[in-house]
Design brief:
Bound molecules: pyridoxal-5'-phosphate
CATH topology of the largest domain: Aspartate Aminotransferase, domain 2
Number of domains: 2
CATH class of the largest domain: Alpha Beta
Number of helices: 9
CATH architecture of the largest domain: 3-Layer(aba) Sandwich
Number of strands: 14
Shape: globular
Strand order of the largest sheet: 2-10-9-8-5-3-4
Distance between the termini: 37 Å
Structural class: alpha/beta
Radius of gyration: 21 Å
Amino acid sequence: MTERVYNFSAGPAVLPVPVLEEAQRDLLALPGVGMSILEISHRSKKFDEVILGAEADMRTLASIPDNYQILFLQGGASLQFSMVPMNLMPAGGKADYIVTGSWSKKAVKEAQKVGEVRIAATTEPENFARVPHQDEIALDAEAAYVHFTTNNTIFGTEWKSDPDAGDVPLVADASSDIFSRRTDVSRYGLIYAGAQKNLAPAGVTLVILRDDLLARSPEGLPTMLDYNTHAKAKSLYNTPPVFAIYVMGLVLKWLIAEGGLEAIERRNEEKAGLLYDLIDSTEFYRGHAERDSRSLMNVTFRLPSEDLEKQFISEATKAGFDGLKGHRSVGGCRASIYNAFPREGVEALLSFMKEFERTHG
Ligand SMILES: *Cc1c(COP(=O)(O)O)cnc(C)c1O
């Protein structure tokens, strides 16, 4: 048996062990089908069960109302940076963007190719160490929508409560914290997420979209870039990423069995709390994010010098902790502890960090 290490990767990221075990059991032949999930048609009865089951379980897990479409697309969250404005911004229209990190900036760049983008708030001057307060956000009541990033994967910040967009539809890039805590889907016009951080292996992109927004898509959009195509065809207009959807279905079942979003939220708060408590208790480790913006998913921290950071990461890797190197725009370290990341792994990292401080501090 190959040993699993503790995988702190920001994405693609750790998946629940029971999910991997079930996928492994089914890999040669799905029960009652005699073929692998990798080999079956997306038009087969079995795959119908898989995709409809995933949708139904997602509705249960997050109480997604009936007037919301659930779409399983491709192209990553990055394609949504374009599809959102192409579909939701009317000709000559404008949209508000709240900029809280590198991914928000990329979303702005694509939206600017489609229409007028207003930066409603940005925390770039503070190297994105926090998300803005409501009173710093200047919203335009005429905007087609307000776009924000719920969790900033690179900087390790997360909104504790969503920006209030009034009657303007709120569009959320939730790629790195989707279904990590309780959520009220009815507050949003559209939520999207590349699935490879908290939901599934790479290859599928989730879009949850309020029905009335479908009417906004202009005539003449490329067929594959029009949300209506995928809504009408129930995500089966063309071949969807069958395997990734199947695994997402298993992850959703796992989330429900673990107690749903309330239980997951509690667990995520405890896991992140262990790391932030250590960071707060010492001068050796310094968090990048400000306290009231700290992410439960990506914990970013620095050590006293870059040399010590290099040594820390190299010794951590040897000790079985993978993926702790921070993104170059923040430097230092980042522990990504998504839903599937086990508490024992956080406790083991904590012991390692304390020992490292004792011997190098
Ligand atoms: C990873 C990430 C993306 C990019 O996702 P892709 O699926 O690789 O395009 C976008 N937004 C956020 C917040 C992310 O964490």
